[in-house]
């Protein structure tokens, strides 16, 4: 049964005004009779990781630079597949966009749905703590701070009935490595701090990691570097590569001037560029929230979203390797279905048991522990399950079909796949447009 309009509105706090936070605002704010929403954003603008910043390290307020965006980035998904389902990109123009164009899209999304009035900018969330009401329920005490004030005199407190965490994933780079990084006497940089290829002109670079960012950054660095080694333990890429970009196996041990590789090679390089992914981080959640992060796995989360002990604490963006904006849309719709009673969450014990069964299934299928939330081809059944439970419309099949086509063309022609443009032509169909 849905929440009656006679009942008090649920106060929802959203942490972060990137794409996930904007989706949360869009769907809560359009139901003012049910939800009262406020968003806390520590920067002065919306967009999260899509806001390019030349700086690395910390910003003017001493906070970590949030964005991992590099200057020349273009999306590795076409706009026709990555759009929010209820707000398509403009049809004209190329399919694979610059980061500035995606940020412009998010600005238009926020303006179209009048979202900025719900956002408290330049506001850092310092502390989130559950407060039990004595009747089995929980409210959330949220302490925030104006980032422009050096001391704690600007601290304010808010109370919410539910919290949606949308603070992003690509901030805290994974820097762990086989052997000690201190052995290597050259430059070590994580992809989070990569901005332009000119910084590697005439250098020999070992780019570690063959995910989407590793492939793209290795290609870009090769345009300026003397030599680039793409180090990974996945099957070799079958696409053509520049003459000065070669694949090699993973590093077994670093040396002062390079590394020993798994395949027996000893390579010398000037720069170790780590495209090795990110850690989840929720520094504002108190220990009382009982959120655990262990080697890439966040627990206890039902459907990768709902805290099983505190089912009014939600996370958007935990899952990786999928269509992000459609994921955010689906996750928010599912969250609101649990809050308004459209979907009745199972008992805590059942949610925890399902979480464990899914994780053990992944391990049996060969997934690494750190890939507890990796989706890839699993995303479509996952999206459909959320939609069916929440009783809202599934994503059109055309999005999956186009996503799968891009994966195929990317594998076959990494250097040129972005030159193709597409259009969705029906619920299940798409075509190449010229």
TrEMBL record:
Alphabetic keyword roster: FAD, Flavoprotein, Monooxygenase, NADP, Oxidoreductase
Cofactor (UniProt): FAD
EC number: 1.-.-.-
One GO MF term attached to the UniProt entry: N,N-dimethylaniline monooxygenase activity
A Pfam family this chain is assigned to: FMO-like
Enzyme class (EC, first level): oxidoreductase
Keyword Flavoprotein: yes
InterPro entries hit by this protein: FAD/NAD-bd_sf, Flavin_mOase, Flavin_mOase-like, FMO-like
Similarity field: Belongs to the FMO family.
Name assigned to this protein: Flavin-containing monooxygenase
């Amino acid at each position: 049964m849905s929440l009656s309009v006679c009942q008090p509105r649920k106060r929802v706090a959203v942490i972060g005004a990137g794409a996930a936070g904007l989706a949360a605002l869009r769907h809560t704010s359009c139901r003012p009779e049910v939800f009262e929403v406020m968003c806390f954003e520590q920067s002065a603008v919306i967009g999260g990781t899509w806001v390019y910043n030349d700086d690395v390290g910390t910003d003017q307020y001493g906070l970590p630079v949030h964005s991992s965006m590099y200057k020349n980035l273009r999306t590795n998904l076409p706009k026709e597949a990555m759009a929010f389902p209820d707000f398509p990109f403009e049809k004209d123009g190329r399919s694979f966009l610059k980061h500035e164009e995606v940020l412009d899209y998010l600005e238009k999304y926020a303006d179209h749905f009048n979202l900025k009035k719900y956002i408290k900018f330049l506001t850092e969330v310092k502390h989130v703590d559950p407060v039990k009401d004595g009747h089995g329920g929980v409210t959330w005490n949220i302490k925030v701070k104006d980032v422009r004030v050096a001391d704690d005199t600007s601290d304010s407190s808010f109370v919410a009935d539910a919290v949606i965490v949308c603070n992003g994933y690509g901030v805290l780079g994974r820097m762990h490595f086989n052997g000690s990084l201190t052995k290597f006497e050259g430059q070590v940089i994580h992809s989070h701090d990569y901005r332009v290829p000119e910084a590697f002109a005439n250098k020999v670079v070992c780019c570690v990691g063959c995910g989407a960012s590793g492939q793209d950054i290795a290609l870009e660095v090769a345009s300026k570097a003397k030599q680039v080694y793409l180090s990974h333990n996945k099957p070799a890429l079958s696409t053509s590569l520049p003459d000065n970009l070669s694949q090699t196996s993973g590093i077994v041990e670093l040396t002062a001037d390079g590394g020993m590789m798994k395949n027996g090679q000893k390579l010398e390089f000037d720069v170790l560029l780590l495209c090795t992914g990110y850690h989840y981080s929720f520094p504002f959640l108190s220990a009382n929230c009982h959120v655990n992060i262990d080697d890439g796995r966040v627990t206890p989360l039902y459907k990768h979203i709902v805290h099983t002990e505190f089912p009014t604490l939600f996370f958007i963006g935990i899952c990786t390797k999928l269509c992000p904006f459609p994921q955010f849309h689906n996750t928010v719709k599912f969250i609101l279905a649990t809050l308004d009673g459209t979907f009745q969450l199972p008992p805590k014990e059942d949610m925890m048991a399902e979480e464990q069964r899914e994780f053990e299934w992944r391990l049996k299928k060969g997934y690494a522990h750190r890939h507890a939330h990796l989706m890839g081809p699993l995303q479509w059944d996952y999206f459909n399950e959320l939609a069916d439970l929440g009783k809202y419309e599934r994503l059109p099949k055309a999005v999956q079909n186009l996503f799968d086509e891009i994966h195929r063309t990317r594998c076959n022609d990494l250097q040129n796949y972005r030159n193709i443009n597409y259009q969705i032509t029906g619920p299940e169909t798409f075509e190449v447009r010229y």
